[in-house]
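Deliverable D5.2: sample structural annotation.
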Amino acid sequence: MPDEAVINRMGFNNDGAEVIAERLKKRKSNIIVGGNIGKNKVTPNEEAEKDYLACFEQLFEYVDYFVINVSSPNTPNLRALQEKEPLKKLLNTVQQRNLQKPKPKPVLLKIAPDLSNEQLDDIVEIVKETGISGVVATNTTISREGLKTSKAAVEQLGAGGLSGKPVTNRSTEVIRYLHKKSGGTFPIIGVGGIHSEKDALEKLKAGASLVQLYTGYIYEGPALVKRIKKAILADR
């Protein structure tokens, strides 16, 4: 694809939290594992909290941190949970359960790159109000603006979340905006279109504390991680 991008329609397809917990129970490595949790496709938004809490409880002993995912474009109506009041309610519910644990885990919120500045202002306010640990910025986009691929070809590919280079700049803009608005009071994991050392450094300089790679692996290969690590060390 000339845009060096991927469109996925996977949603949250998996074997379920119980099965995943059993797998994680058997892992022998000490790598950091995050539990990215969301509601089931058939669960109405009014009952979404039950799904998030069920995943939270199943995975709590086996992950190092949680990501509350309300931004996948492939689960019907999920992104409506990014609106201020439902989001605040959801995060408060999960965080209250988290704080009841002897050793609470970091809880982060994963947001879409398609939010307006006004919505990002709400995110900053909600993170502070609920006391969660930070934000993952950003998920895939539903936008198809500025692609090199023809409009007809893109339409033929169908709906789904777009990741890769077309998301690079917007993701960095969201990181910079959140960091500035929050005064750097919470960590941001930067995700979206990291295909080079330069991309990773730009996100870190915009205010990200950590970065994650997805589509960059496909186009650049796993050696990209080593190059990014070297670039970060050289930039210090």
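Annotation notes: The radius of gyration is 18 Å. The beta strands are 5-8, 34-37, 65-69, 107-111, 134-137, 161-164, 188-191, 210-212.
The annotation will be released with the project's public dataset once the embargo ends.
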